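Annual report, structural modelling task.

Input specification for the 2-acetamido-2-deoxy-beta-D-glucopyranose complex:
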Amino acid sequence: MRGKMRLYFYLNIVILVSILLLVFYMYSVRQIRRKESVYSHLSVNAQESVTEKTVNYRKNDLVVAVVACGDRLRETLNMIKSALMFSKEKLNFIVIAEEKLIDSFKEKLSEWQGFTNHGFFFKVLPLNFPKKDGHEWKMLFKPCAAQRLFLPDILPEVDSLLYMDTDTLFLTPVESVWAYFNKFNKSQMAALAPEHEDPNVGWYNRFAKHPYYGKLGVNSGVMLMNLTRMRTFKWTEYVVPIYKKFKLHITWGDQDIINIIFHYHPGKLFTYSCRYNYRPDHCMYTSICKSAEKDGAAVIHGSRSSFHLEKQPVFRAIYNVFDTFQLGGDVYKDFYQPVETNLDNLEATNCGKVKDVFLKNLRRYFDLDFENT
Ligand SMILES: *[C@@H]1O[C@H](CO)[C@@H](O)[C@H](O)[C@H]1NC(C)=O
Ligand SMILES: *[C@@H]1O[C@H](CO)[C@@H](O)[C@H](O)[C@H]1NC(C)=O
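The model returned the following structure:
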């Protein structure tokens, strides 16, 4: 009798444990499934860099690319922030960064994904130079800017992108720059703004010892690139020989190489106006970018460290407001109003005299531009 009781007792325990194990097993399977489905929504950044490369972009995806090295982390994040503040489309960012910056980018951008209405995707990739002259390329210009010359080869899955220097900021939605792809004719593969408007102060026409595009050259800070067409053209095969031929005459690194290539192939470049790459040069003496006076600057470019130097107070002030603004905050109250106040205080400076250049697109964004409605 006792033996039988004991047997029942053990049998019950075995059954109970089995049931518990089964429940636990089913629960874990569900958890794993759930995790998988979350990750496939997050797509790009949640995966390891090996699989990142296989993510397929669709043809109409808006892709913004930037290359960041050295002390450019914060500046680059501010550019990305400005893109996120005004765009209504889902954006894809490709950040190519020096090894030591990669984790910081991933951390900040993941955090920001929680603060944006439309969501965005991003990839952070390590620098990737042709093995042969890798070191030489890195030294060519300010750290690693030459990386951009190789984008058609290192991003074979991307059709087109908007390349931005780290020291640029959007004052309009990315879409309004991207729209220029539709204006390309069959042969154009990139769009750039002129380096200068006025031959009397232009750099290329006065100093360059190499060929350059058009009358005054082009500035490479804000560049629409149809990578598909650049690959068909075999862009990279032009880069290396041109670099070798002109390396002793090159001052502005990758920008000079771009100028030289388009000097020989002018039909392949679309030029948009200075309002898509508005620099201190456009207002520091007199106002020379008429399209920005009329329609406002779409992208500002703090070339020669203008975002950080007292010499260009308007550029520095706008940069600082972007820097302080927190995504998810009130763009009107915490961004637009401080910009306006700063510019009011700088009316006496040359760039402050044309403050509407900087405010026009923001006002349009907030529907404040009553004159133009
Ligand atoms: C880039 O060029 C290819 C080939 O001409 C074309 O199919 C594609 O639509 C272009 N991309 C954009 C964004 O215009
Ligand atoms: C595209 O436009 C450029 C610049 O206006 C021109 O040189 C080129 O011939 C055009 N190509 C085609 C196919 O129309």
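The longest strand covers residues 218-226.
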